[in-house]
Amino acid sequence: MSYIPHTPEDIKQMLSAIGAKSIDDLFKDIPPALRPKSFNLPASKSEFEVTRALRKLADKNAAGLVNFVGAGFYDHFIPAAVDALSGRS
Q1: Would 1 be classed as within a structural domain?
Q2: Long-range contacts of 33-37 (CB under 8 A, 24+ apart)
Q3: With CB atoms 3.0 to 4.6 Å apart as the test, which of 11, 20, 45, 87 could cross-link to 49 if both were Cys?
Q4: Mean pLDDT throughout 41-69?
Q5: Can you give the pTM of this predicted structure?
Q6: Residue 11, domain member (yes or no)
Q7: Over the stretch 9-46, which tens digit does the pLDDT of each residue have?
Q8: Of the candidates 43, 6, 1, the residue with the CA atom closest to the CA atom of residue 23
Q9: Domain that holds residue 82
Q10: What is the number of domains present in the chain?
Q11: In a domain? residue 72
């Protein structure tokens, strides 16, 4: 899912405000040899997948003690957006 907060009209207005014709104009001073052709990034992951991977990494630091506080509630995944949205007035 792509999240682009600016409409094409917004981008046009911003470029006009700084005197650029296109987004590529913003990078024209960088020599082509120094511009990355691709970033060779791994495939994207969901928030849940990243949280699970980081939790597995963090679990390596655990002392192995059992904690019964919360009666199992702590094992439920709640996306970060829920906290942000529930905090709105």
Answers
A1: no
A2: none
A3: 45
A4: 86
A5: 0.40
A6: no
A7: 999 999 999 999 999 999 999 998 998 888 888 899 99
A8: 6
A9: 47-86
A10: 1
A11: yes
